[in-house]
Write a sequence for this structure.
């Protein structure tokens, strides 16, 4: 079964534990500037929204890369950056419609979410369940359940 | 180790920024944040100076757990000599600013002198510079943060700034970061204003800023800590759902909710301004005041309130800038802006709270000062002519108007900016100021809760609830239940709380963790982050050392045992209603025992032996 990150912004409190976990996983540092997942605060709407790569099937970053530095991990479905191959040309950062692949000046390479090889640190760190790692075919399951619960199977007797 | 070991020293007069190594011996003795900056301040300034003198210093400081995955590891403090009290001031804030400072590579920024013209400090990792802020002077906190981010084309910059209140030296001006988190009390923002320092803007991207002593042990300890917070009723349920506002109805029912300048101990409008009410749909627009809860950096509790006002409310009807969501009322603010002056309009409280955030002033002291002004008005001492409008207890319009005037520094707002002690003294009734060391009480009556009364009287930064939260044993039964009116065992419990709190405030984590965490939960996290042996015994000794160092500063500044006191109202006027009816403070019973437990003379001075034992 393939799994994918599932994000429910309504549960996010903006604590940034996910960003720290990601930075630690990849840079051995809690410095969130290095995180591959970002939580956006929409202050006047009172919303916090975690956002990262959704691992497109037809990944434009992968297609655009001139040196084949972005490959498919067949186990997780993640599109991963092969650092030794990456030449830091940044064409992928232009190709990605969602901005979720970015250049890292200190390494001269790009970075993006690689699902931590199948155990995403962000999901593990999230204290509210806003980020989960679930069956890729059933990311809608929770919401379906929510609506299913509202189905009136026992009409009022009035 | 979890310190960056770098201190940034900013001379505002000369306009220079220099780097110096952290005094590691002091880090071992005082841990970080509150303790460490206090040590620096005490070593560098004369305690007798005028807080607004360029000789005063202003220190922004993080702790070893700031900017780590330890739950709530995002705190920073601002330490200076406070203008409201003349005592040591240390105000703690959350949000995202503190962690960013750490990621930029700084444990501490020490501001000295005063700038000849308005400036802000811009920190970009190791690079720090003072930038002209003449275009920001006169702007609010909200405007300042937006302008700085736009100007530098970097939305990820974190900003801590003062609003007009800080510029106007409102004696309880705050420093506000991330729009609505504040180093709120004792007027640290006014000191910043006196130095012509408008803001500190930080971007931190270093991955080598600091190192954990033992990463594996750190993750084990912090994950265990998070589980404890999640499983606890207060930190796992009450605080996320209702915020600190979970207390409003509880404290009111217990007869410990100071009302109308402490004339009463119960407020008939308590429910209207409670955490529960924030969840209820308004009849006007069918929406709840509360939009969601929000967390500070690294916080797995998430007690913050994010509120949206009724756009039709009289206070904001034609002001669309207040129609969006922003920081809503916490318990202390709701009490001060509401019960303390008899106002029960939650929307008006939310608006006044927005103003406190927007222009940077402490809602506790402000609201309590409104209560004092209303009492003076009802006595006929303060007149409509002087204020410009009627000022009876319970007047929503008057409270709102005073908030606006204080924010702008106009009209009677200038007098309000002095706080209740100076206001009441000016009108011949200093006894009506509900303060200790000129700082206003927060939201618990010191008669109704005897331990809180003692906590207020002995607090090094004047009346406040954050240095020895006796509400825990007296109301919540944490760690043990103590009857509100009992005095036995309270001096000892308070001392333990004060010392533990000093450790928590020096570590970089939030005091609210202690609803669930004991020292045995905190110690392994500090131990894994910091090099050296940090046993529980040693940590408590560090806490005691910090408490005594603050005390020594105050004694040198001119405070004496006479200042460890409560206003006559709490000592002589019995609580009128509720379960604590008839209560007055029994401070006289507890204080001598407290001094003794502290190893102080009957005059409240640490003995030579105590000084030697603590190395203070």
């Amino acid at each position: 079964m393939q799994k994918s990150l599932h994000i429910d912004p309504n549960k996010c409190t903006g604590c940034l534990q996910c960003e720290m976990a990601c930075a630690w996983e990849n840079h051995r540092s809690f410095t969130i500037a290095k995180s591959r997942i970002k939580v956006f605060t929409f202050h006047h709407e009172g919303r916090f929204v975690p956002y990262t790569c959704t691992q497109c099937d037809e990944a434009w970053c992968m297609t655009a890369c001139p040196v084949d530095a972005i490959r498919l991990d067949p186990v997780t479905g993640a599109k991963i950056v092969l650092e030794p191959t990456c030449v830091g040309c940044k064409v992928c950062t232009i190709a990605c419609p969602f901005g979720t692949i970015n250049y890292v000046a200190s390494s001269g390479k790009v970075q993006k979410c690689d699902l931590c090889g199948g155990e995403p640190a962000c999901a593990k760190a999230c204290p509210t369940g806003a980020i989960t790692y679930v069956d890729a075919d059933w990311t809608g399951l929770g919401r379906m359940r929510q609506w299913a619960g509202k189905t009136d199977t026992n009409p009022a007797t009035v | 180790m979890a310190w960056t070991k770098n201190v940034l020293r900013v001379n505002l007069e000369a306009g220079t920024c220099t780097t110096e190594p952290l005094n590691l011996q002091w880090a071992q003795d005082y841990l970080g944040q509150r303790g460490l900056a206090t040590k620096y301040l005490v070593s560098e300034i004369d305690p007798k100076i005028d807080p607004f003198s360029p000789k005063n210093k202003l220190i922004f400081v993080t702790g070893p757990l700031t900017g780590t995955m330890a739950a709530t590891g995002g705190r920073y403090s601002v330490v200076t000599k406070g203008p409201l009290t003349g005592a040591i001031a240390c105000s703690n804030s959350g949000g995202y600013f503190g962690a960013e400072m750490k990621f930029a590579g700084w444990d501490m920024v020490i501001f000295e002198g005063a700038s000849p013209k308005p400036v802000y400090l811009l920190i970009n990792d190791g690079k720090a510079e003072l930038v002209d802020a003449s275009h920001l002077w006169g702007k609010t906190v909200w405007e300042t943060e937006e302008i700085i981010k736009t100007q530098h084309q970097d939305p990820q910059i974190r900003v801590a700034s003062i609003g007009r209140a800080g510029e106007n030296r409102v004696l309880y001006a705050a420093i506000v970061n991330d729009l609505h988190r504040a180093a709120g009390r004792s007027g640290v923002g006014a000191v910043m204003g006196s130095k012509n320092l408008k803001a500190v803007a930080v971007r931190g991207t270093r991955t080598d800023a600091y190192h954990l002593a033992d990463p594996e042990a750190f993750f084990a300890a912090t994950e265990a800590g998070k589980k404890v917070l999640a499983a606890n009723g207060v930190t796992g349920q009450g605080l996320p759902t209702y915020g600190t506002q979970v207390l409003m109805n509880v404290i009111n029912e217990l007869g410990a909710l100071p009302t109308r300048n402490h004339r009463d101990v119960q407020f008939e409008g308590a429910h209207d301004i409670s955490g529960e009410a924030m969840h209820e749909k308004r009849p006007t627009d069918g929406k709840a005041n509360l939009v969601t809860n929000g967390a500070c950096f690294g916080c797995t509790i998430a007690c913050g309130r994010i509120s949206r006002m009724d756009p039709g409310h009289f206070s904001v009807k034609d002001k669309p800038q207040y129609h969006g969501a922003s920081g809503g009322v916490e318990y202390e603010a709701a009490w001060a802006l509401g019960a303390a002056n008899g106002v029960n309009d939650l929307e008006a409280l939310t608006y006044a709270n927005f103003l406190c955030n927007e222009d940077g002033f402490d809602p506790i002291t402000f609201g309590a000062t409104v209560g004092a002004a209303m009492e003076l008005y009802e006595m006929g001492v303060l007149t409509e002519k002087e204020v410009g409008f009627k000022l009876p207890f319970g007047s929503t319009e008057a409270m709102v108007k005073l908030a606006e005037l204080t924010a702008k520094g106009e009209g009677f707002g200038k007098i309000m900016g002095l706080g209740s002690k100076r206001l009441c003294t000016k009108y011949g009734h200093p006894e009506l100021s509900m303060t200790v060391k000129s700082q206003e009480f927060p939201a618990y009556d010191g008669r109704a809760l005897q331990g809180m009364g003692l906590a207020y009287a002995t607090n090094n930064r004047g009346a406040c609830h954050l240095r020895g939260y006796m509400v825990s044993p007296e109301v919540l039964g944490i760690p043990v239940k103590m009857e509100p009116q009992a005095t036995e065992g309270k001096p000892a419990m308070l001392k333990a709380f004060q010392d533990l709190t000093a450790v928590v405030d020096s570590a970089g984590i939030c005091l609210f963790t202690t609803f669930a965490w004991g020292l045995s939960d905190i110690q392994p996290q500090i131990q894994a982050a910091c090099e050296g042996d940090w046993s529980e015994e040693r940590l408590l000794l560090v806490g005691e050392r910090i408490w005594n160092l603050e005390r020594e500063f105050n004694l040198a500044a001119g405070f004496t045992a006479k200042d460890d006191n409560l206003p006559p109202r709490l000592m002589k006027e019995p609580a009128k209603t509720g379960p604590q009816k008839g209560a007055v403070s029994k401070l006289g019973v507890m204080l001598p025992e407290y001094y003794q437990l502290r190893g102080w003379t009957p005059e409240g001075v640490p003995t030579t032996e105590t000084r030697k034992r603590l190395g203070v």
